[in-house]
Amino acid sequence: MKKQMLLAAMSLAILSAYGNAAPADKAAVEQLKPAAQQTQAALWASRVLSRYHYKATPLDDAMSEKIYDRYFKSLDAEKLFFVQADLDKYAGAKGKLDDAIVGENLQMPFDIYNLYQQRFNERIAYARELLKTKPDFTLDESYQYDREKAEWPKSEADVKDLWRKRVKNDWLRLKLAGKDDKAIRDTLDKRYENYLSRSRKLNGEDVFQIFMNAYAMSIEPHTNYLGPRASDNFDIQMRLSLEGIGAVLQTRDEYTVIREIVTGSPAGMSGKLKVGDKIVGVAQGETGAVTDVLGWRIDDVVQQIRGPKDSKVRLQVLPGDAGPDAKPVMISLVRKKISMEEQSAKKTIMEVKDGAVKRRIGVISLPTFYQDFEARRRGDKDYKSATRDVARLLAELKKDKVDNVLIDLRNNGGGSLTEAVELTGLFIDKGPVVQQRSAEGRVEVENDTLPGLAWDGPIGVLINRGSASASEIFAAAVQDYGRGIVIGEPSFGKGTVQTLISLDRFAQDKQRLGELKMTVAQFFRINGGTTQLRGVTPDIKLPQLTDAENFGESSYDNALPYTVIKPAVYIPAGEVKDIVPLLAKKHEARVAKDKDFQFLVEDVNYVKQQRKDNLISLNEKERRKERDEQEARAKQRDARLAAAPSADDPILVPDPKEAAKNAVAAKPAGAKQAKQAAAAVKGVSRTDDGLQGDERSLSAELEAEKAAKNAKDVLLLEAVHIMADEVSLLKTDTRLASRVLPYAPDR
């Protein structure tokens, strides 16, 4: 399934998102029905979408057919549950879903979902039945693991054969990892039981959101319906703060488990909670009754724990190291505003040797373009903002006397358009940044109006296929102004602007109807082109890790086309065309000798071939051969990772404050710590253990994540090298420097 189809594929949350504690022997599956406010929300959404969307499309029979197709695919993206006869049964609905919305009768889409739930239960029951037998791994057969583009199974026999191969593959993975038949049966039976438990936690709000997104995304890929809870979470993501206790939660078996504690939060300051503790009950205030949350969906538990600032919440907690029969303890906490610092801009400094001198490169990582809109609107002088944070980091990097700055926008999916414009303004004096064209064809230019720069030295922008929307606006503006060098792979290609429209204004009796995230404009570069469909093409290309056919704007079947408009009036800030070929030549010579970079290229090519083949052998002998080859490659990488770094590798310069803090907390390293460090290195390239995330211990998962974070980021280090090369060229060629850096002729 395409990774970006997140909202359309909400039904897949049954496999990961909502926990797994519902009783497995529940006699009958609840038949879900639409609520009155949902039919009202659908009607008002259709009126807004058909009139005010950038690509306004009438809700008619033609649209109904598109909704029908997308709804079935959203429910069963990999075509594992429905058979063709199920689609034929509801063929009459193809041209009637528009009538269902307008007539405020959504029973039909709910009936389709209820059939899906029935089929889901049947397939999982069959999978569990297959565990009573033992697969024959001597047969020469294979399994197609990506079925998004496959045909629907024609018959029950076809879908059973599909599940036979799926179970066989699950079994073989565990067998290759060294598990015996009993352990394999136990692991898979629990896994499939958990699938059922999670699916039963889906409710009418989930079903309605899946259906409404099938409608919204049938118009255009970036238009979505957000139910009341999804709307709240979207708001939290944009302002990077919430009011709660500061604990990241996860569902494991029947329990809500603490996965991470935010430093400085009520949970952290109390000293009473630790990673691995299980929350089994929640109570409000000093005297509120305890609500048993064992087996609840994770988002329902979160809803109970969040609350107004300075209010009290009491948690009934089983210590993580206690047995299931241990007595829970009651912990009282006062909720505070929690800042989601993991998503905030961060800086590091890398040093690169250049002969006898060292080049200092400041790297600013920006995961999203965030802004606390409400705080800014009410005049809060300390409101949270990506631009404000980056400006502060740039001031610090100036004091650190860095020679160049690299803005890392990899996997930054966008956010606030205002932030993209204001962030660009930190690097240019004044002028247009992006153009917007409305549905009526009116073009408006978004300008940086503040004179002066926060950084007048050279800059680079690192992007990948996951850099989208606001990231592309910023990267394109830097490129069009000649202000810096764009490095990486072609970006996502999202050239559209969305706005949030609350449907609550149309509600009766103050009901919450949710929001539409609706496309209302298309943005264009100041040179008149657009990033739509094509994305931003980097000046210096790094290996393309993703498949453009399956990820990015070009993978959507209804994406808006590429087009151009008249350029804005702007004066380029610099000219990088003369320096790019020189940097590219140095880059190509360096990576040709870089073993880590070549390993990465090999891995990329290997994965691309796997995607192309889209088949995995179910023959044990063949799979063992493949595994042995992969392990041999992994050992090469482990040896390389364990070796001393090259003298030419960029070196991370520790932050003095962090270094001091770590020194105080540090303990003498012993044999145990040495073993853990070695395991962390090995964990970066660990072989397939056949398990899914929640089947591993929490400590193992956290250790693997830590190892992955500490793994060598080959692409970032190469981008840092390129930035260092640029400094060297500018230092030795004053005429080149004057063209690249018009704001800083002294450099």
UniProtKB/TrEMBL annotation:
Position of the signal peptide? 1-21
List where Low complexity composition bias occurs: 661-672
Q: A Gene Ontology molecular-function term?
A: endopeptidase activity
CDD domains in the record, alphabetically? cpPDZ_CPP-like (cd06782), Peptidase_S41_CPP (cd07560)
Q: Which domain of life is it from?
A: Bacteria
| This protein's UniProt keywords | Hydrolase, Protease, Serine protease, Signal
SUPFAM superfamilies recorded = ClpP/crotonase, PDZ domain-like
| Annotated Basic and acidic residues bias | 617-640
A single BP term in Gene Ontology: proteolysis
Q: Which SMART domains match?
A: PDZ, TSPc
**InterPro entries in the cross-refs:** ClpP/crotonase-like_dom_sf, PDZ, PDZ_sf, Peptidase_S41A, Tail-specific_protease, Tail_Prtase_C, TSP_N
| PDZ domain: residues covered | 235-306
Region described as Disordered: 617-672
Q: Can you cite an annotated GO cellular component?
A: outer membrane-bounded periplasmic space
Q: Which family does it belong to?
A: Belongs to the peptidase S41A family.
The cross-references to NCBIfam families, in alphabetical order and at most eight, read: prc
Q: What is the recorded name of this protein?
A: Tail-specific protease
Q: Which gene encodes it?
A: prc
